[in-house]
Structures are given as C-alpha cells and as structure tokens.
Model the fold of this input.
Amino acid sequence: MRLELMEDKSIQSIIENDEVEARMHQMPRPSFLWAGAAIASGYAGWHWLTTREAADGVQWPFRRTLELNEGLSKKIYIASRLSPQFDKSEAGEPKTNGMEGLGEALDMESWHLTITGPGDQKSQLSLADIKGLPRVEMITELKCIEGWSQVVHWTGAKFSDFLAKHARDLASGTKYVGMSTPDDGYYVGLDMESAMHPQTLLCYEMNGEPLTPDHGAPLRLAIPVKYGIKNIKRIGAITLTNERPKDFWAEQGYDWYAGH
Ligand SMILES: Nc1nc2c(c(=O)[nH]1)N[C@H]1C(S)=C(S)[C@@H](COP(=O)(O)O)O[C@H]1N2
Ligand SMILES: [Mo]
Done:
C-alpha cells in the first residue's frame, strides 16, 4: 500500500483497495470502517480521521470513542467503591497543574461560597461554615489525565455533610452538581452520585497545611474517583441542578464523567 497515493483520496477509494475489501467481508459490518482506517494508518489514516465532519466540534470517530468511554465509565462506576488510601509517608506535593480560573489574585475578604438551587434560590457560606463541618482527612491519589499521579493528604469536609447541613432544601431531588471558580474561568459538572461519594471532599488543607493559592485556596475539591480535571481549585460557586452542568474539559472533548 502506498500512502502517498492515498493522501488525497476519500475513504471510498481506501475501501476499494482489494486487501481492505477482503478483510472487510470477514468482519461484522460496524467494524469495517475502523478496519479501513486502521489499515490505511499513518498519515492517510490520520488525515481521514481528522477531516471527518465534526459533531459538537469533535470529529465523529473520536466522538464515538468518547461516547463509548462515557457509557463505560458510568456503568463501571459503583457508588460504594472506595478509592485506595495510602500511608502518610507516601503523600507529597502534586505539581501545580492548570491555572484556569486562578488568574486574579485571591481576595479572601470578598471570597464566599455561593450556592444556587434549581429555582435560582441562592445562599452564601463563609469558609468558617465549611470548617464547622466534621473535619475529614484522607490520603488518596490525584491522577491527571496527562499521565502523572501523586498521593496527597487532604483535609476538609465531606460534600455530603455540606449538602445535608447547608443545602438540603436546594439540593432536594437534583441530579447534578456544578462547581465554578469565582471568575467562572474553570468549571466542572458532577453527577450527584459522585458528589455524594464518601471520599468527595471540599478541602481547605493539603498535606497538613492550608491550601496555597496555586493549589486552590481557600477551597477546592478532592474527588479521587475522578481524574484531576474534576478536582476543581478555588471553588466560588456550587449549583444544584437537574441539567447537566457545563464542564471545562468536557467542552474540549474529554469524557464528561472522567472517572477512573
Ligand atoms: N480552577 C482550576 N482547577 C483545576 C485546574 C485548573 O486549570 N483550574 N486543573 C485541574 C487539573 S487538570 C489537575 S491535574 C488538578 C491539579 O491540581 P494541583 O495543581 O493542585 O496539583 O487541578 C485541577 N483543577
Ligand atoms: Mo490534570
């Protein structure tokens, strides 16, 4: 197969290739296009993949994979599953990763947590309100989709305790939780099941010290059943809703659930 010849040709001419055709007939129908793409491989394959019509800005072959992963990660998810806990000696500082929504200097004077419910009802909490909830510590792994991970010792309040004490009425019957930075520059969406998981913490300390601004002071999320992208730093607002909340990285084509 000569790739130079295929660069300008459509998938039609790729699948007319005898070798591919022969294989195509041996396969159940849904996989033959994938086989075509795989066999074309190299630049031609890549070119074909990246020039497909975009659905929601994501080329459809990628989109199919994403949807598949999303379905899978939702199915595999079990509310009672606990993420592994580690020894304190293994905890360390994760590399500062992602500064979206942290552009402005943190102003603790004006910081507060705004909670919004479905009927647009709002309430406001202070950091003292969160610190007044039962103090919980856990040593879990922060896993970034970029491929690195770090064991971190987190201290904070369980999201479920926060909800029960401060947002029970606003949360009643809602399916999702949205969280965003005060400037709305970074935001995540969570299914209620994951938010209510016993290891989902609203944290104010990392490795025994108050959070630094780069790691999300004054309040960030630690949610070890999800990848790092969902562990939002500097939370300014929490929304309880029945519509799937917007999510910074899902908008870029990442799996909305981002579980692992
Ligand atoms: N506000 C905000 N939170 C964020 C991000 C970001 O860009 N902005 N990046 C996320 C990503 S991709 C990771 S891996 C973790 C990293 O947390 P750390 O910087 O404390 O190590 O933060 C997450 N939370
Ligand atoms: Mo990340």
